[in-house]
Write a structure and sequence with these properties.
Triger factor/SurA peptide-binding fold; 5 domains; 5-stranded antiparallel sheet; 4-stranded antiparallel sheet; 18 strands; disordered N terminus
Length: 626
């Protein structure tokens, strides 16, 4: 039930719990009332209204919980970036606060009765079609919410949705607008382009030392290194405790005997099949007819393998005459498995069986029972399994010891010596991260620049790098921000100057060519090294044309042809585009199609207007992030 809610629900519970809004709503409750009396600095202020730190923390925790649910049972919490989540949640809280303020200014409200009705009508809270209090509390408990919290979440969402709905539902489009949009969407164009590369000019361009130094003098105040730290650290690795040689034969024998008690011999069947897919060119009826035709050929004595090679749409088995080898039931689609395991005789062929892949003719080629593994076959894996289980216990024990030692020690020497760990040293790491695994780990970076490590020079708490490794770090050297020397900046500044000068030269050349082409000259007259790439009947999604050129070509005015435009590409090169012709298509929409298109276009316009409204609220608001 809960998994279904998480994955597929489209109702209110999904919007308020799983959706981004629920992740960022302020969770008003008893703790929030208590926090009002505290002197804690708020996370942000929006038009004078505080966003409490506790609300930000709750939002981050709720988002963390939802992300871990989406990641599944093997989720690794260390992969989540708390800093990134904190920034995202704070920005969403700011936007949510602005929307609530806007709704209140407009006098929007939601009665308690309306809230009650929304809750009792939510399918996820119902059993046998009726609201069930126990179901309601269970769903909220699994989402980390109390009924009061959820009620306030629902109130805020419904309140802000009133304004959003007003924009979307009041916006409309006319038939003329729909026809114009459809015509533009279905329009095709004949076009050509020539790419003018920058690389050759880059190789030919040079700058003087004085030009580089002049640019350095202009930029000197801004050329600063990032504040950095060099870390000493020790890593506790669970794999270091895995020692199969310490596992006795008696332990292995005991596990093996238990494995035999639990062993269930599973039947496997050797199978061949012929697959007839359902495609755009072949619907279900045609695919079934083809499968039935092959079935009749088999009954008449045709060779199964030959028919599979000639007709099967399964590329993995067709070349092998349809053979798939020995398979267990769970490896097959339900319908396929049911048909195969219902057969009683080797060589038997099924009637056409439909699965999500199409229609199958299935032949049973053989049967076998999985045999119990011998002790010799199992001993190595069982010994390793026991060693890994023991290592897990040792690892947890050593983690606790590492935490105690690193907390009480004045450096990393004592923890390293007692736990037989090597003290390693990192490359310099800035607040934005750095090279190596430590520099890419947000928790390590956050700890490294904390007051405890940066100013007090303490050891960090143990930080999990992943499920098998834990690190304790210590600031070995603090590198404050400083001005970059000319020698350090020289190569980068030289490349910048060369690129700017070459780009200017290329743009000037391309502009001269554009004027010449507009004057009627042919490209071949301008240069023998370049030629047009021409495409006819290109539509807005035509993969034959690079996306940025295609987008610009469809933005060109089509009042006369040929038309020319110059553009700089994202990679720094330039391109001249030639528009040769525009082909309009006739628009013929039925009444139903027109109604649907008017509704969709109107809703899209309303959504854009609402987004502009939200952006306007942000631009006009007084926002202070702490």
């Amino acid at each position: 039930m809960l998994q279904s809610i998480r994955d597929n629900s489209k109702g209110i519970i999904a919007k308020t719990i799983v959706g981004l809004i629920a992740l960022t709503f302020v969770l008003w409750g008893a703790e929030s009332l208590i926090s009002l009396g505290s002197k804690e600095k708020p996370a942000a202020e929006v038009n004078g209204e505080d966003i409490a730190v506790i609300d930000l923390q709750r939002g981050v925790e709720l988002q963390r919980r939802q992300l871990l649910m989406q990641m599944g049972p093997d989720a690794d919490p260390t992969q989540l970036d708390d800093n990134l989540m904190g920034r995202q949640v704070l920005e969403s809280l700011i936007e949510q606060t602005l929307l609530i303020q806007s709704a209140k200014r407009q006098g929007l409200f939601l009665s308690e009765q309306m809230l009650d009705q929304l809750i009792v009508s939510t399918p996820e809270f119902q059993v046998d079609g009726k609201f069930d209090r126990n179901q309601f509390e269970m769903v909220l408990r699994n989402a980390g919410l109390t009924p009061l919290m959820y009620r306030e979440l629902l109130r805020k969402e419904a309140l802000t949705n009133q304004e959003r709905a007003a924009f979307i539902l009041s916006s409309f489009s006319t038939p003329d607008e729909v026809e114009r949009v459809v015509r533009l969407d279905q329009q095709k164009r004949d076009l050509a382009w020539v790419r003018l590369p920058l690389l050759q000019l880059l190789n030919e361009t040079s700058v003087t030392e004085s030009e580089i130094r002049d640019l350095y003098e202009q930029r000197a105040a801004d050329l600063q290194t990032s504040e950095q730290v060099v870390l000493d650290y020790v890593v506790l690795d669970k794999n270091d405790f895995v020692d199969p040689s310490q596992v006795s034969d008696d332990e292995v024998r005991a596990i093996y005997e238990q494995m035999l008690v639990d062993f269930v011999s599973e039947e496997e069947r050797s199978v061949s099949h012929i697959l007839i897919e359902v495609t755009d060119e072949r619907d279900e009826l045609a695919a079934l007819a083809k499968a039935q035709e092959l079935s009749l050929e088999l009954e008449a004595g045709a060779d199964f393998a030959e028919l599979a090679v000639q007709n099967s749409d399964d590329p993995g088995s067709a070349d092998q005459g349809g053979a798939m080898g020995y398979l267990a039931r769970e490896a097959l689609a339900d319908e396929f498995a049911d048909a195969l395991f219902a057969m009683t005789e080797v060589g038997q062929v099924s009637e056409p069986v439909q699965t999500e892949f199409g229609f199958h003719l299935i032949r049973l080629d053989g049967l076998r029972q999985a045999e119990q593994p011998t002790f010799a076959e199992s001993a190595y894996d069982l010994r390793l399994e026991i060693a890994e289980r023991n290592a897990e216990l040792d690892y947890v024990e050593k983690m606790e010891r590492l935490a105690d030692l690193s907390f009480s020690a004045a450096d990393l020497i004592v923890p390293a010596e007692e736990l037989e760990l090597d003290i390693e040293r990192s490359e310099p790491i800035s607040r934005d991260g750095g090279p190596g695994e430590l520099g890419r780990n947000s928790r390590v970076v956050e700890a490294a620049f904390s007051d405890d490590l940066l100013r007090e020079r303490l050891n960090s708490l143990p930080i999990e790098l992943d499920r098998e490794r834990t690190v304790v770090v210590r600031v070995q050297e603090h590198l404050p921000s400083r001005q970059i020397t000319f020698e350090e900046a020289r190569d980068e500044l030289e490349l910048e100057l060369i690129t700017a000068k070459a780009t200017q030269q290329l743009e000037q050349q391309a502009s001269e060519w554009l004027i010449a082409l507009q004057g009627g000259e042919a490209l071949a007259q301008l240069s023998e090294d370049y030629s047009w790439v021409e495409v006819s009947d290109a539509d807005r999604g035509d993969s034959r044309v690079p996306a940025e050129i295609r987008q610009r070509a469809f933005a060109m005015l089509d009042d006369q042809a040929p038309a020319f435009e110059l553009m700089q590409l994202r990679d720094g090169n330039f391109a001249i585009i030639r528009l040769d012709a525009v082909h309009q298509s006739d628009v013929e929409l039925s009444a139903d199609e027109m109604a649907v298109m008017m509704s969709l276009l109107g809703a899209t316009k309303g959504q854009l207007e609402y987004q502009n409204r939200v952006e306007g609220l942000r631009n006009s608001a007084t926002i202070q992030r702490n």
